[in-house]
């Protein structure tokens, strides 16, 4: 797939609406901001429900302000009550109460596709969700999702297994991931930094598809998980099947990472280049 300058990627006469439910990143690299960029860049129309506001930049997170539960509910009712939301991407939910609320609203409004990025583990390795909230996530949201997109630390937290350190240990985790009760899992292998390739596994109940891309030497990977899951939701909303959506999203994030160093944003781990297609001729 190529993305020539000016390409419009949505296939229907009306643009498909994709809702992101996640936290806000004031630095613009991850969370709601990355989701909106990725959905827009891949041809969807992005709506949002914000679950928390962070004080954040490329150097880290300095403060988090949770959104009151009643206002999260009113945001959900507002967007679902007016917009024809085809796909939903779910990111940071913070606690069990928010998880239960989002699950209830998804059962009420029944969007066609649900993509869950289980944001649970910080780059430092610290858990961002309490164990009770992880249990709520597994019980309430995973059964509703068409696909979940954990990285290796998140997959370990979901399954209770040790984090894999090589391809054999990743393969040993497949059965436990299939037993989580979701339709499909995209297990992201980006944390295997000793590998020269970034290999992801699309795991369904009957098949495993490997998606491979050469690892790109850059520190500017802030927001890759948010971006990838949002792109999957966007492609699903446009009519691609699951395997096509994951493949197209993998190609999109690879190109966005490959162009990330051109942005030179911030002093730490910068964002990927969501709109790399606009910079191809520069």
TrEMBL record:
EC identifiers of the protein: 2.7.1.49
Presence of keyword Glycoprotein: no
Record GO biological process: thiamine biosynthetic process; thiamine diphosphate biosynthetic process
Superkingdom of source: Bacteria
GO cellular component: cytosol
Pathway named in the protein's UniProt entry: Cofactor biosynthesis; thiamine diphosphate biosynthesis
Keyword Signal among UniProt keywords: no
Stored Pfam families: Phos_pyr_kin
CDD domains (UniProt xref): HMPP_kinase (cd01169)
Domain Pyridoxamine kinase/Phosphomethylpyrimidine kinase, chain residue ranges per copy: 25-273
Keywords associated with the record: ATP-binding, Kinase, Nucleotide-binding, Transferase
Molecular-function GO terms, alphabetical: ATP binding; hydroxymethylpyrimidine kinase activity; phosphomethylpyrimidine kinase activity
Protein name: hydroxymethylpyrimidine kinase
Organism: Vibrio ziniensis
Underlying gene: thiD
